[in-house]
Specification:
Length: 169
Amino acid sequence: MRHDILTEAKECAKNLITKKERIETNLNTEPSKIPSLGDIYLLRFDGTDQEQSGVRPALIISNNKGNQYSPNVIVLPLTTSLKKTNQPTHVILNAGEAGLQHDSMVLCENPVCVSKKKLIKYLTTIKPQQMEEVSVAYLLATGAISRITEEKLIDVRNRAVSLDATQVA
């Protein structure tokens, strides 16, 4: 009897592992696509307390050179809860214009660095005008821009353009 129970338990464990592997393989449907600045992916957030958590869309905000070589990306979470829309660090994406199922808000004050392995599925790429709005809100969220002289800001922008092959100077 004990042998039968152990054999059955081992078989159940083996089936669970196989099922888990199938699920994980199916979640990341486009492992060969290199994420790009402005892409929106479905992503698994592991936030606690007031941080974003669960599976939700996220906007890639890291530069394309880093996206090509790093195992990680920097993302901004999206929410369909459109609260505090006048906050300068929130950008509304109209569902139709952005290629999303629902109107959403980019939470530019909540950047997260995550492993590319957490990217579940590519959803869409936002338009350059939308990316510009997000970029401004993201810079405002950091506050670091207020510490840079105009001359240095121009230099930093030129360096950033060189890290983003899709950017038009």
